[in-house]
Structure formats: structure tokens, C-alpha cells
Amino acid sequence: MDDFRNLSSEQNAALVIFTFLQADCINTEYCKELISLGKEYDPNCNGPRIDTLDDGDLETDGHLPTSLTIALDGVLPSVQLHRNPEEEAALQRVAEELREIAAQLEENVVAQATQNLRRNILITPCNHWRYYLNREVERVMSWVVGLEHLPYERVIVALTLTLVKGVCEQTPQLLKNLFYTALQYITSSSRAR
Q1: How many helices (H) and strands (E) does the chain have?
Q2: For residue 131, which phi and psi values (nearest 5 degrees)?
Q3: Which residues form a coiled coil (predicted)?
Q4: Which residues are paired to 77 by β-bridges?
């Protein structure tokens, strides 16, 4: 079964995006924005809860408890997406695979694309962000060599999320709007396939 096909659902895509964006969260302001977005995205979120991970460390490999969590200083807001554990695990595997693909992208190419995207979205209204996101993804895809063995749509999603995370780590206050832009971009692209 291909877990990746589930990204056409907005909730599934949102879970994958959250899981991808929270990995290696070291910027405090960025982490706070993730927590705020998590609480806002799911109206059923009951606010922060205290939870401890088995080893006391922040999980950064995509393996999360049964609900989407964003960890910061031991406070874990829970975004309950009310799905079965197998489905959540499948979506988390997708996020992990996307992070592995993103790690294969050349750092200097992604860094330049991130700077271009950030510069463009800082000077334009939100309704144009999807255009700039698409433009940078297409431009990087034309430069990337060595990922031909990977499925094209996965590389596109991994690159999209890498650019979004890069911009949001530099400018955390853009997270909410850029998250929704990426969510719309990914779900519309998945439906078009």
C-alpha cells in the first residue's frame, strides 16, 4: 500500500506537514509558532498537556505518540486527529520519507531557493505566496541532479516542505500563513495527479 496517496485529504496532508515541520525544531520562536498553529488548526485541541517521552529527549525522527504532538520544554499540545494508529503511523512514515528526500537535496540550492522565497513573500500579499512557492519548487527541480530514482511527486512535496520550513525558521511569524499555503498547494497537487 502506498501511504503517499493519502495526501489529497487535507487532514492527512496537515499531519504530514506538521510532522515534517516539527522535526529538529531548535528555534524557540519557530517552535512557539508551531504550537500556536497546532492549537489553532484543530478546534478540538484541549490545550497543552504535560507528557514525557520514554527517553526524555525530543523525538526528531518522525516517530510520535498516537497523536500529533509538538514538543517544547516538556509541554506538548496535542492535536487530536481522531484516526486509527495504523493510519497515523502510515502518515508519519510519509513525513519521515519526505525528510529523507529533503536531506538528499543540495544544501546550497535549497538555501538559495529559501532566500528567494522569503524575499518574495515578505514583499507580496499572502494570495501570491502559492505562486512564489510553486516557482521556487519548479526552479530547484530543474537544478536537482541525482534524485531521478525517487518518485517525482514525493520530491516535489519534500522540496516544498523544505522551503517552507527554511523560510519559517528564519521568519517564524510567517508559519501560519505559509503552512496554509503549503497545505493548499500540496492537496491541490495531489488531487491533480
Answers
A1: 7, 3
A2: -60, -50
A3: 88-115
A4: 48
What domains lie within the chain, and their CATH numbers? Answer: 3-192 (1.10.437)
> Could you give the CA distance from residue 48 to residue 78 in angstroms, rounded to a whole number?
7
Give the position of cell 526552479. 139
Alpha-carbon distance values, 164 to 18, 21, 129, 178, 181 (Å): 11, 8, 11, 7, 9
Distance CA 61, CA 164 (A): 18
The rounded radius of gyration (Å) of the Cα atoms in the chain is 16
Q: How many CA atoms lie within 13 A of 46 on its CB side?
A: 4
**Pairing verdict, β 75-79 and 68-69:** antiparallel
Q: Are 180 and 10 in contact (CB under 8 A)?
A: no
Residue type, 187: T
Contact 12, 4 (CB under 8 A): no
> Which candidate, 101, 128, 113, places its Cα nearest to that of 166?
113
Q: What is the C-alpha to C-alpha distance for residues 59 and 23, in angstroms, rounded to an integer?
A: 8
User: For residues 95 and 105, what is the distance between their CA atoms, to the nearest angstrom?
Assistant: 16
pLDDT per residue rounded down to tens, the chain (193 residues): 355 666 667 888 888 888 889 888 888 999 999 988 888 766 454 433 323 333 434 344 444 333 334 433 433 333 444 567 888 788 888 888 888 888 777 566 888 899 999 999 999 999 999 999 999 998 888 877 767 777 888 888 889 999 999 999 999 999 999 999 999 998 887 666 5
